[in-house]
């Protein structure tokens, strides 16, 4: 089986007994006949996107699709020239209300297709209506940083999710991934390290504090 957007090492990690058990239990919940919304939370660089792609690949395209929270980043036209620009990725730099509305539509499952936004790192912007989610798909995987936050607005998001899994990744590995990611998308090493150890680290502290609220913790290296 070839999994989308996943490195070979990630595919092998996904074959662990612990993760296979989690997938089997998720499949068993489909017997109810209702759509399941699964949240995948974790700090920046934890591998949420890769894990979610692996999970969707394991379940199959007719069974699961990924709808990331990152499609609800505030656009650069909104945050440029404001203090939010230097904290991009913080909780208040997302359209929480828009994300909540999308999850509610997905949970109702009463539209033939729902179109969701995605986030394109190459342009550092959300792109509207770029993911099609047919009503026939029974599992929606939504990955994002703040799914377990105790902020009242984010708690409304959590209430829409049947389960939330937390991706647990060693800090040094996360930081290395973040620096590589920022450099790949145009930062020099000094700027990449400053952002990874600045705004990314501040957000990670908030997110790591929510780990205990997860339904399942997934070790992911």
Fill in the keyword field for this structure.
single chain; 221 residues; Rossmann fold; 5-stranded parallel sheet; two-stranded antiparallel ribbon; 40% helix; disordered N terminus
Question: What do you see in this structure?
Answer:
It is built from 9 helices and 7 strands. Helix content is 40%, strand content 19%. The protein has one domain (8-219): 3-Layer(aba) Sandwich (Rossmann fold), CATH 3.40.50.300. The strands form 2 sheets. The chain has a 5-stranded parallel beta sheet. Strands 3-4 form a two-stranded antiparallel ribbon. Residues 1-6 have low confidence and may be disordered. Strand 3 and strand 4 (125-134) form a beta hairpin. The protein has 221 residues and is of the alpha/beta class. It is globular and about 50 Å long.
Number of helices: 9
User: How large a portion of the residues is in β-strands, by DSSP E?
Assistant: 15-25%
- CATH level 4 superfamily: P-loop containing nucleotide triphosphate hydrolases
Unreliable runs: 1-6
Total strands: 7
- Please state the structural category: alpha/beta
- Shape verdict: globular
Number of domains: 1
Largest sheet: 5 strands, parallel
The helicity comes to 25-40%
In CATH, the architecture is 3-Layer(aba) Sandwich
The helix/strand order is HHEHEHHEEEHEHHHE
CATH fold-level topology: Rossmann fold
The CATH class:
Alpha Beta
């Amino acid at each position: 089986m070839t999994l989308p957007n996943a490195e070979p090492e990630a595919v092998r990690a996904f074959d662990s007994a612990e993760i296979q058990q989690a997938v089997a239990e998720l499949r068993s919940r489909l017997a109810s006949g209702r759509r399941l919304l699964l949240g995948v939370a974790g700090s920046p660089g934890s591998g949420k996107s890769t894990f979610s792609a692996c999970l969707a690949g394991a379940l199959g395209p007719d069974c699961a699709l990924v709808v990331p929270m990152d499609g609800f980043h505030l656009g650069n036209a909104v945050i440029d020239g404001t203090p939010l620009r230097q904290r991009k990725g913080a909780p208040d730099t997302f359209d929480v209300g828009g994300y909540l509305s999308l999850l509610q539509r997905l949970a109702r499952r009463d539209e033939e297709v729902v179109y969701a936004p995605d986030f394109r790192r190459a342009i550092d912007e959300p792109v509207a209506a770029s993911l099609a989610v047919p009503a026939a798909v029974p599992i929606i995987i939504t990955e994002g940083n703040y799914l377990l936050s105790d902020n009242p607005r984010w708690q409304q998001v959590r209430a829409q999710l049947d389960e939330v899994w937390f991706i647990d990744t060693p800090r040094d590995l996360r930081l290395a991934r973040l620096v590589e990611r920022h450099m790949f998308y145009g930062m020099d090493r000094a700027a990449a390290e400053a952002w990874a150890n600045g705004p990314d680290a501040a957000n990670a502290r908030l997110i790591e504090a929510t780990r205990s609220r997860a339904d399942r913790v997934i070790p992911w290296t």
